[in-house]
Amino acid sequence: MRNFWCEVDLDKLEYNINKIREKTDKKLMAVVKANAYGLGIETISEFLDDKVDYFAVSTIDEALLVKSEKDILILTPVYTEEDIALVKDNYILTVDNVETLNILSSAEKDFRVHIYVDTGMNRFGIKPNKVNDFISDIKSLYKNIKIEGIYTHLHNTANTKYTINQINLFKNILDNLEEHINEIHLLNSNGFIKYNDSVDFDTTVRLGNIIYGYDSHKHFCKKIYQYKAKAIKTYYVDKGEFIGYGNYFKTKNTTKVGILDCGLIDKFGFTKDLKRNIFYDAAKAVYHHLKYNSGIIYNGRQLRILGRPNMNFTLVNMDGIEDDAIFNIDMSPIAGDSSIPKKYRKGDVNV
Ligand SMILES: *Cc1c(COP(=O)(O)O)cnc(C)c1O
């Protein structure tokens, strides 16, 4: 068993859901795609089962992992016939084009769908001026397809003017719908934080990031995860010795070394101590891009990494620190490898 793990605090997850519920009476769709943003789709969905109204995932493969009988919206409107065969009664498919409808209509069962409208992102979605025709085609030609919702995605929430225009565009599409559609949703986490009070025509909010407390310094939810590590071995190295690959570190005094069993393979290991090599610079560019921030922290202070992180070990200076100290490892589950063990906590209990 590794001495490196990601602790997930289910009490904080519940706290976040309660906070969101305090701020809105709209239905809550919990986005658990990408393995619940790296935190474990099975445990997270099971825990959220009685706390949210809907789930959303990216693909049907992911929906199969959700431990809940609640409705699950599949966000990616691209399906093969193999996918379609796996659709259960509580799955709702996103549709945005006729090819998809044709695949659905060739199957011998009914499908529940939400229509996805492209209001500017240019990823998936039907264009605004095609929405009414698309809906009337479904109604008249695709008898096994039942339209239950319509939605769009806010992709540039940092820009208020742009987003307000986008919200108005979507509102305008809804005002001109020729058919009544029950479920309407557009707010993701940043949309919810900034625009929930000004959007009153939607029925549901579709939230991922804030539920888990990513970027928690920017909003009211708590970060629910923390990577942690404990040395698998500690020892002393004499003054004037090199440590690790490439002799990047030389001791100035007798030094207590701790070996942590986390390393490059865990996407860990890019801190200030590595500044002087090309690898660091290249990695830094990549990780800056991913907003990845990594450090090993004990009692509020960054520990010094000795040399460079290895494939699966990192050596740290443990002068004055007891052998069984537990360190906080500052990294994001989105960047972290999903094979890193997770420990779920509820109260003081591991679950
Ligand atoms: C991922 C995703 C969300 C959730 O976004 P957050 O910013 O994590 O809240 C909502 N809608 C769609 C279409 C998504 O792909």
CATH H-level name of the largest domain... which superfamily? Alanine racemase
What fraction, in percent, of the residue positions are helical? 25-40%
Provide the structure class.
alpha/beta
- Average of the residue pLDDT scores: 91
What is the CATH top level name of the largest domain? Alpha Beta
Uncertain spans, ≥5 residues at pLDDT below 50?
270-275, 288-294
Ligands present:
pyridoxal-5'-phosphate
Commentary on this structure:
Helix content is 27%, strand content 24%. It is an alpha/beta fold and 351 residues long. It has 2 domains: 9-212, Alanine racemase (TIM Barrel), CATH 3.20.20; 225-350, Lyase, Ornithine Decarboxylase, Chain A, domain 1. The chain has an 8-stranded parallel beta sheet with strand order 8-7-6-5-4-3-2-9. The longest helix has 16 residues, at 160-175. The two termini are 17 Å apart. The model is unreliable at 270-275 and 288-294 (pLDDT under 50). Residues 31, 33, 75, 153, 188-190, 206-209 line the site of pyridoxal-5'-phosphate (PLP). The modification N6-(pyridoxal phosphate)lysine is found at residue 33. One of its GO terms (biological process) is D-alanine biosynthetic process. Its cofactor is pyridoxal 5'-phosphate. InterPro entries: Ala_racemase (IPR000821), Ala_racemase/Decarboxylase_C (IPR009006), Ala_racemase_C (IPR011079), Ala_racemase_N (IPR001608), Ala_racemase_pyridoxalP-BS (IPR020622), PLP-binding_barrel (IPR029066). Substrate binds at residues 123, 311.
